[in-house]
Specification:
Oligomer: single chain
Number of strands: 0
Number of helices: 15
CATH topology of one domain: Triphosphoribosyl-dephospho-CoA protein
CATH class of one domain: Mainly Alpha
Shape: globular
Radius of gyration: 18 Å
Helix content: 55-70%
Strand content: under 5%
Largest sheet: none
Order of helices and strands: HHHHHHHHHHHHHHH
Distance between the termini: 13 Å
């Protein structure tokens, strides 16, 4: 039986995922081909470096990992660059630190999520207030602008699951990642060789075409988000079964148009990093 991953391995997997996401062309997001939305690649690199340690800290609950990683990221950049990434990756990081070879990452993740309590909610809500993401609005129950009222973090995510894909991930034990995104990535990687950044581009476009981006929904409404999804689908010949160098002009044009309209599919980017993180953890488990 192989033991659980240690903090150094988890941090390395997280940084690898963040850097791989930045290296790939992801229309609408910040990447090495183009900055956007007042942010540059350096901001995301700094945030990833700051968050990696707190996310992987052994013996730390999910909520505390989220809070400490967010505090470190905001202190390093002065911006909210990676709240969604931190929210999604913290449970995976805890699961990876507790998962042996014969248990399985997703099974352990389900155990971690089911054990989330009110302390986790308090810390996660505080982290969200620190990051101050755009477009949250207010709701009657489980509003992050106030202290959670006897809610566990999982219960709070249940309340938001119908309007937010990150919350839905907690409720579904990361169905979007394990059932959709990981198979897409694993199919695209060998096709993309020798340049695996094209597999990440394919992953991004697949997610963008499959799910209306909830960051865009919060800021601009569902109709705009659905339009972006249809535009991504219309470009399918450029990225399916895998993006190539010949795809770059069309995808760069799409990137420029999204940024000109102020449309940032930030939730999609969060899921790209999370999928790459899960993939790296699974590969390390079998190595």
């Amino acid at each position: 039986m192989k033991g659980a991953r240690d903090a150094k391995e988890i941090s390395a997997s997280f940084l690898s995922a963040c850097n791989a996401e930045l290296d790939a062309l992801k229309p609408g997001n910040v990447h090495r081909y183009s900055p956007g939305h007042g942010m540059e690649v350096l901001h995301f690199e700094q945030a990833a470096e700051a968050a990696a340690g707190p996310l992987a800290e052994p013996g730390t609950r999910v909520g505390k990992r989220i809070l400490r990683a967010t505090e470190a990221s905001v202190a390093a950049t002065g911006l909210n660059t990676n709240l969604g990434i931190v929210l999604l990756c913290a449970p995976l990081a805890q699961a990876a630190g507790e998962t042996t070879f014969d248990v399985g990452l997703r099974r352990r993740l389900g155990m971690v999520l089911s054990a989330l309590d009110e302390r986790d909610a308090e810390d996660a809500f505080k982290a969200i207030r620190i990051a101050s993401p755009a477009g949250l609005g207010t709701v009657e129950e489980g509003d992050v602008s106030a202290e959670p009222q006897h809610l566990t973090l999982l219960a709070a995510m249940h309340l938001a699951a119908d309007r937010d894909r990150i919350a839905n991930a907690y409720v579904s034990v990361y169905a979007d990642v394990f059932d959709f995104a990981l198979p897409v990535l694993q199919e695209a990687k060998p096709l993309a060789l020798p340049d695996t950044t094209f597999a990440v581009t394919t992953l991004h476009m697949s997610l963008l075409a499959e799910f209306a981006d909830t960051h865009i929904i919060r800021k601009f409404g569902r109709e705009v988000a659905e339009t972006v999804r249809e535009e991504a689908r219309a470009l399918r010949p450029q990225w399916s079964p895998v993006a190539t160098a010949k795809s770059l002009p069309a995808l760069l044009d799409f990137d420029a148009k999204l940024k000109h309209r102020g449309l940032n599919p930030g939730t999609t980017a969060d899921f790209v990093v999370t999928t790459l993180f899960a993939d790296a953890l699974i590969e390390r488990k079998h190595s």
